[in-house]
Amino acid sequence: MHMKRGTPISVSKRREWVLSILFQVTFVHIGLAAVVINVDFAPGGSGGGDSVGYSGQGAYSDPGNNYWNHRDPSTDGSFNGVAGTGGRLDSADPYNAGFFNDSTGAGTGYWMELWQGDPEGGFAVNSGHGTYANVATDAQDLMSDYLISSTDWGAGTPALNLNGLNSSKYYTLYLYGAGDLDFRNTSFTVGGYGTQTTTGVPGGSHTLTLGQDYVVFSGITGVGFLPISWEDGGESTEGPFNGFQLIENDEPPPGGAVPEPSTAMLIGMGGFVAWTSARRRARRHI
Length: 286
What we know:
Helices cover 17% and strands 29% of the residues. It has helices at 11-30, 140-143, 261-284, and strands at 33-41, 44-45, 69-71, 74-75, 84-88, 111-115, 121-125, 145-150, 159-163, 170-176, 186-190, 195-197, 214-221, 225-232, 238-241, 243-249. Helix 1 (11-30) runs antiparallel to helix 3 (261-284). The longest helix is centred in the last third of the chain and has 24 residues, at 261-284. The protein is globular, with a radius of gyration of 23 Å.
């Protein structure tokens, strides 16, 4: 569009340009994330008395979509006490509970199989015990229960397969591994994509923190199934696995990283600010 210098621009035309910029810059980036799968782990069976299913936002923000799949394999109740409930896993291998729903609650073709290890276990904090002190305040019900890998119980390592991955899609995986006690951390190995370890929580009130409460594996391409194993991260003999988020993308993200919706919105607002600043400079020179 060419306009003579000094030609006034109507309010409606400015609004049209702003909406166009926000749509092209912001929603195109958000649109890369086609499907989000949220999974919250907890002990079930006789050891599941203090388990609370999570509903809300994770570290990958998906505003307005708060559905989490709750996976709670049966435990024997051997940990039940003042601190919480849980125990050794006592379900048959492999454990699975059907197809996952996405973050909107719609069905998908993704599912998982869990192998118990020696077997390993699960734990859920008793809300009256006060051990929420080291749990992320913005995702308390996600981070206060978990599956456990423990070297105290033997040499076996629990593992799961994520099934249904599509070879034409691209994936990002958020893995949560922090316990109710500050010294617990987790080492995650994702088949073909290496190993990352959470640091654990230094203690005290905090919100979900990258590297401390969770790690992110990106650039994953569909291979039918994706193996994941976990074990303690070296700070204690127990490695918690609170849950995960799997983000499916239709296209490879620019630069190999998927912008989170909140980041993409900031990019969009940056475009708006740049446009308005340019308009002000142009008007000063008219």
